[in-house]
Amino acid sequence: MNIKILDLCVGCGACAIISPEVFEISDNKAIVNPERIEHYEDLCLDAAITCPVNAISIEEY
Ligand code: SF4
Q1: What are phi and psi of 30, to 5 degrees?
Q2: Angstrom distances, CA of residue 58 to CA of 19, 37, 47, 55
Q3: Is the pTM of this model over 0.90?
Q4: Ligand 1 centroid distance, CA of 61 (Å)
Q5: Cα dihedral angle (36, 42, 1, 52), rounded to 10 degrees?
Q6: Is 3.30.70.20 the CATH number for 2-59?
Q7: How do the domains of the chain map onto residue ranges?
Q8: Across the 61 residues of the chain, what is the mean pLDDT of every consecutive 10-residue run?
Q9: pLDDT of residue 59
Q10: N- or C-end of the chain: fewer Cβ atoms within 10 A?
Q11: Pocket of ligand 1 (CB under 6 A)
Q12: For position 61, what pLDDT does the model report?
């Protein structure tokens, strides 16, 4: 799984609450820790579904 944060991100913090192991907020935008994704894929999907502006782009292998 690969995750990109699109420029649409409004920095609401929801993804970082759902999956703090993968997402964090920096300068009012979400950033992704790619090394952690494989251990938290279900939570990453939850975060993507929850994102209010659909800024979490997930590519499944
Ligand atoms: S949930 Fe979406 S809008 Fe909110 S910080 Fe995460 S990527 Fe950005």
Answers
A1: -75, 145
A2: 14, 11, 10, 10
A3: yes
A4: 22
A5: -100
A6: yes
A7: 2-59
A8: 98 98 98 97 98 97 80
A9: 95
A10: C
A11: 5, 9-15, 30, 51-53, 55-56
A12: 80
